[in-house]
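Hello,

Following up on my earlier ticket. Below are the two sequence lines again, exactly as submitted.
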Amino acid sequence: MDDPVAIEKCRAGDKEAFRHLVERYQAEAMGHALAILADCEDALDAVQDAFFDAYQALGRFDLSRQFYPWFYTILRNRCFKQVAKRKKKVELSEAEAMILEPVRGMRPEDRISLEQALLELSPAERELVTLKHLDGLSYEELAERLEIPIGTVMSRLYHARRRLREKLVDTRLEAKEIHP
Amino acid sequence: MTEIDCENVRVAAMAISDGEESTLTKEEIESHLLNCAACREEIEPLRATNQLLSSQRRLKPEVNLWPTISERIHSNVETRQPFRWRVLLLFGLPLFGYKFFLLLVQAAPSLWSKLVPVILMIAIFTYLKTNPFKINSDLKLEGETIV
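Thanks for your patience. The regenerated structure is below:
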């Protein structure tokens, strides 16, 4: 079933049609929520809430657009609400992979170091860097997704990468030395 | 080279390295880099970090959220949102409005002379639908400059 067909069915009152959208995008949404929140439980809550919000807002969805970028706006709102609600800093788990999938040829300890460096960035920086590098979004797409001007994308990306670089040096993971 | 020049060059160099358009041409960046060791030292490690990041893939955890979401959709109850504010609005606003009206009726003329301009200003701003003070509410990261 195509997304627009599923959305039309949902609008017509077929609640089961929403299952198609949830099952198609839940893993991607969890990946994105984890990258922002760095916490499994919070990410799970945010994704569930975002799907529920999306279901309620389907009437306002423009069928000429793609579903996921629209849904992503709802998801990131939920994620940043979770961030704002937090009273204490999230404990970073070294054992559990949150953002990066194991890549062949890269040592697990190097992946963990890179992941730790990413987790030490702010949620907004982490979101930007991962959307750029792991999803391969262009500056224009990033500007659209994050609702900021392209100049701001360039500047924020530069500063986020600079901070990441500093964290990598702290963890003694020299990017030049790794050839995945 | 001034600090701000260097920062613009670094941001532009990273944009070019990402295959994007930048505010400076490749020639302008190269010419700056030839004369600026600080920028060369800054950009090379960042390019290496870029390469490292771009060789990674995002983790997409296997989850099955449909049972929980389905339950919420079918019950159509927003469990997380408290409804107290709605009750407060329902009863509080009319009460507040009534009390405010009574105060206004009994108020001295001096209060009216203060209230009327305030109400007029609110009405004008609502009509214009713009922020007359041009307050920039965009979030900005530490050390960031807008290009």
